[in-house]
């Protein structure tokens, strides 16, 4: 989720239960999307080798999703597509790196020992399934601060998963994630959001915010998890101070905000028309525009006027590390069901730190 931004276009009224996972067909759509997302992530994990270009990995992820979707037999009127374009984000960068073909980042290559974050998503009939994973390139085991931040993100995600039960307050999840991260002397990335998802909407009204500043605490309301809801849970943890900073890396991922503003430039109107036609509900990358250069120029005014929301590329301090695990969870009356998830094995990371909080240990034991 764009860091620190309130979900755009939130519905004024709660969607009826009939549109949630109380409907078996809706569950089928979420799980069909999750299957492709998981399979694509496995392909991407295997392709993360030293010397591989970030751009090539992003293109591979998007092509794998598109090819897989083409094989899904659905009625012609049933929508299907990418719910979140592939991003490949190394080391101290926080998220959302998805280079354009003509950019400084197009030549960036993964190096042995890089801690890289992978993220992507699929939608079937408008029901999205997102997934994010972290790994160390070229290594099967890790020590030191890489191990600390991976274990912190993994266990914080596992704690969060177990708390997505009916009646849990969003701020209780926030606090539990904070405690899990602190056990490894790390901190959640300030302002990252886990959001309720519904048909054609990744960023719904309800949200769990990580490491909120006082300003963010005031702007995000207290809410409870309820049965038949679906969430994308994004747990991003840092070895530094957890305060993402702006970078010079070009933002290439956006989503429509729902705001209507008259655009002055023809290039902007053309670009936004393409967005409206091809990406009406879900995030997109400029790399997929019919004309990449004109799309980039058009998005400048679209961003300035607020008709699109940018997924900016932030960074921790130089030399620090960021790890992310993201999953999609269905909230049933009897408890959570994770339908996308990590492939991380905690036994592959050796740390001298561990969780000792009794409440967290009790959660993790379940």
UniProtKB/TrEMBL annotation:
CDD domains: PA2G4-like. Residues 29-184 form the Peptidase M24 domain. InterPro entries: Creatinase/aminopeptidase-like, PA2G4/ARX1, Pept_M24, WH-like_DNA-bd_sf, WH_DNA-bd_sf. It comes from the Eukaryota. PANTHER family: PROLIFERATION-ASSOCIATED PROTEIN 2G4, PROTEASE FAMILY M24 METHIONYL AMINOPEPTIDASE, AMINOPEPTIDASE P. Belongs to the peptidase M24 family. This is Proliferation-associated protein 2G4. The gene is PA2G4.
């Amino acid at each position: 989720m764009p860091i620190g931004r309130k979900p755009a276009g939130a519905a004024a009224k709660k969607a009826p239960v009939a549109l949630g996972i109380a409907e078996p067909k809706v569950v089928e759509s979420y799980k069909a999307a999750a299957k492709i997302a998981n399979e694509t992530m496995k392909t991407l994990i295997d392709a993360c080798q030293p010397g591989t270009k970030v751009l090539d990995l992003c293109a591979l992820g998007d092509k794998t999703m598109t090819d897989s979707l083409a094989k899904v037999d659905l009625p012609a009127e049933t929508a299907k597509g990418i719910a979140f374009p592939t991003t490949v984000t190394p080391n101290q960068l926080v998220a959302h790196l998805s280079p354009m073909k003509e950019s400084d980042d197009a030549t960036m290559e993964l190096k042995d020992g890089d801690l890289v974050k992978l993220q992507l998503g699929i939608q079937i009939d408008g029901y999205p399934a997102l997934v994010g994973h972290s790994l160390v390139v070229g290594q099967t085991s890790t020590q030191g601060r890489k191990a600390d931040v991976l274990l912190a993100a993994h266990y914080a995600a596992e704690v969060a998963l177990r708390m997505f039960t009916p009646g849990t307050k969003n701020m209780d999840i926030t606090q539990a994630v904070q405690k899990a991260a602190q056990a490894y002397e790390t901190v959640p990335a300030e302002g990252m959001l886990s959001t309720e998802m519904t048909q054609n909407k990744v960023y719904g009204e309800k949200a769990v915010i990580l490491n909120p500043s006082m300003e963010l605490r005031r702007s995000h309301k207290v809410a409870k998890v309820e049965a038949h809801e679906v969430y994308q849970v994004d747990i991003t943890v840092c070895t530094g101070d957890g305060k993402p900073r702006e970078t010079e890396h070009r933002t290439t991922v956006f989503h429509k905000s729902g705001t209507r503003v008259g655009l002055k430039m023809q290039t902007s109107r053309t670009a936004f028309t393409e967005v409206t036609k091809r990406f009406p509900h879900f995030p997109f990358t400029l790399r997929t525009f019919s004309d990449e250069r004109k799309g980039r120029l058009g998005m400048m005014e679209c961003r300035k006027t607020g008709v699109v929301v940018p997924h900016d590329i932030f960074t921790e301090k130089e030399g620090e590390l960021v790890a992310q695990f993201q999953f999609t969870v269905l909230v049933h009356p009897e408890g959570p069901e994770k339908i996308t998830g990590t492939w991380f094995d905690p036994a592959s990371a050796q740390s001298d730190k561990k969780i000792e909080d009794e409440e967290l240990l009790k959660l993790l034991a379940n």
